[in-house]
Amino acid sequence: MMDLNKFEYLVREAQDTMYRTSMSMLKNEHDACDCVQNAVLKAYENLHKLKNEEYFKTWLIRILINECKRTLKNKSRAELLSDTTLTEISSRDNPYLNVEVAQALDSLPQKIRLVVIMFYVEDYSIKEIKRVLGIPEGTVKSRLNKGRTLLKEMLI
Question: What is the pTM of this model?
């Protein structure tokens, strides 16, 4: 079983990815930080359920996504639309994304936006995205394709 020092180290390594992932889903810094904290706590409490330490980050991000989904269920759509946008977080944390691209990303449907960000911003492979989101590889590929098509239409 993983010791506390290793757990802390791996959580710190995943911290930025967790924050950007939760912000891309929730668009609210307060909710995003709460979800990150809840996910870390749940991961620690359920560490004994992790079968292979190699997949710690994937497992942790999956817990985070479930936390974010729970939060989304409890929030109204109107509240989400008025909160911090992906544009603000993207331009602050990733200088390679310009405002126009960040706004285009923000306008994508959530399921497509999450896959696009995981692939292009967070450098996850298709297989890793499949594992984290618990969806078939073909679905990941089709969402990436749809995202590219929509972004191309918006940016050209």
Answer: 0.61
